[in-house]
Design goal:
29% of the residues lie in helices and 27% in strands.
Length: 224
Amino acid sequence: MFVIIVGGGKVGAHLARLLSGAGMRVLLVEERRELCRELSRELDGVGVLEGSGCDPGVLERAGVREADAVAAVTGTDEANLVVASLAHAEFGVRRVIARVNDPKHLWLFTPKLGVDVALNQADILSHLIAEEMSLGEMITLLKLRKGEYSLVEVKVHPRSGAAGRSIMELALPAESVIAAVIRGGRLIVPRGNLVLESGDEVLALAHAREIPKLSALLGGAEGS
C-alpha cells in the first residue's frame, strides 16, 4: 500500500513511522527545507519530498496518481482542505484523510470537499476522556465502523445485575452481544445457559449508544 502524507510536523512524522513500520510504502511531503533534511535523517524507509502539498505539481512528483491514500495533516485547516480537494477531485485518490485543527471548521471537512475521513483531535480526545470517566472499569479494546461499534472488556462486579445469572436471563441492550467470557485465565464460549460469576472478564460487541447500559448491567451500577 502506498500512502502520501502531507505535513511533516509531529503528527505527520509519527504517522509516517507507524505506517512504514506496518510495511506500507510512505512518502512525506513537507515544504520547510530544514525540516525535510531532519526528517530524511530520522525516518528510515520513508521518502521525503520538499514542496507544498497544495501545489498539484508537487503532488504529481510525489506519485499521487498511484497513491492508495493521502493524509493531509498540516497545522492549518485551509491547507488540509486544499490537499484533500486536489487529491480527490484532481487525481482521483480512493481514500483521503484530513486533520481538523480547529473544531469550528469540522463542518467544512465533507466528502463534497474531498474528505473521506476527518480527524478532529480535540473532539476525539474529549470523547475519550468522557468515555473513560463514565464507563468505570470498562475498557474499549477496538472501535469499528468509525467508532459506531466497539469491542469492550468489562469485569463482572459482585453487586452487578449480572453476577449469578445466566446470559439468557440478562436484559442485554438491543445492539450488543457477549462475544467471550474469560474466567481464571480460561476462555469460555458464552452459551445462553452460562452463569456469570463475579470477576469474570466479559468481552462484548456493542453500539456506542448501548455501551453505558452494558457497563451498568455488568459493571455494578445496575442492581447494586
